[in-house]
Amino acid sequence: MVRKVLLASPRGYCAGVERAVDTVEKALDLYGPPVYVRKQIVHNLHVVRDLEARGAVFVDEETEVPEGATVVFSAHGVAPSVHANAAERRLQTIDATCPLVTKVHVQARRYAAEGYTVVLIGHAGHEEVVGTMGEAPDSIVLVESVADVARLEVDTKVAYVTQTTLSVDETGEIITALRARFPDIHAPKREDICYATSNRQWAVKEMLSEIELLLVIGSRNSSNSNRLVEVARAGGVAAHLIDDESEIDETWMDGVTVVGVTSGASAPEKLVEGVCDWFRARGVDDIEAYRLVDEDVEFRLPVELWRELALAETQR
């Protein structure tokens, strides 16, 4: 019988997600609905539904946005071709790409311009990877595993960048394999896996010895949430990814006394509260934070929106 729930810290929204969600909300306040959003602004079903209820319209491609309308680009970043298409359609664009993803785009472009083959460590098809590869499609090759590194055929100097939401441990293994194959490989000055992804993985590792089950709150398409599940399982602890408390299976609790709860970087804290309420309704009163770590990273709103908001303020 579950007697205690431990809440991982840090968990939930990162600065890039907070900025992206704020961007859509403030654009809706400023321009009124509809505001179009290319792809999911962040990978969380609840966030998307909440914004839809306020008047955001989510589309798969910028070519679906009516000419001259306002469109927000998601936190995952877009390829230059998307900007070109938007300009052709005279769209008013607001780029909510996370600054840490933008950093990877800039690095990839720079390496390609300097004649490097750029090895991108990431997951095929993920929006962030699609956007990064679009920066220099002729110079970037994707690797997803150590086995992929062994198959690389490269005849130029080599550099690497990574998707920001990967497993710290798995990425470390791939980088080790790259260094073994290409001793002169050029590396980013600072690792590309974002602070929030690595912090949330670290927080899970820290609590594994205290728990018998981990619930990760996050949507199926959230890369960083999936990595949290993998981290727990790699440490020998059963783990499940849930969108909210409605997906909890009571049979998971059989023989379990302490449950850990965390949430991916796209999951709002209200979902954690919902899971806590689920346990309270079943008689679990001992719910506490496992250590307390504050993240004080903040990102300014996209410049094109910030300017418009400032202008609107002066005209009041």
Number of domains: 3
Major sheet: arrangement of strands: 10-9-11-1-12
- According to CATH, what is the class of the largest domain? Alpha Beta
Main sheet specs: 5 strands, parallel
- What is the helix/strand order? EHEHEEHEHEHEHEHHEHEEHEH
Q: Structural class from helices and strands?
A: alpha/beta
Mean pLDDT across all residues, rounded?
96
CATH architecture of the largest domain: 3-Layer(aba) Sandwich
* DSSP helix fraction: 40-55%
Globally, the shape reads flat
Rg, rounded, reads 21 Å
- How many helical elements? 11
Low-confidence stretches: none
CATH superfamily placement of the largest domain? 4-hydroxy-3-methylbut-2-enyl diphosphate reductase, catalytic domain
Number of strands: 12
- Strand fraction equals 15-25%
Short description:
The chain is built from eleven helices and twelve strands. With 316 residues, it is of the alpha/beta class.
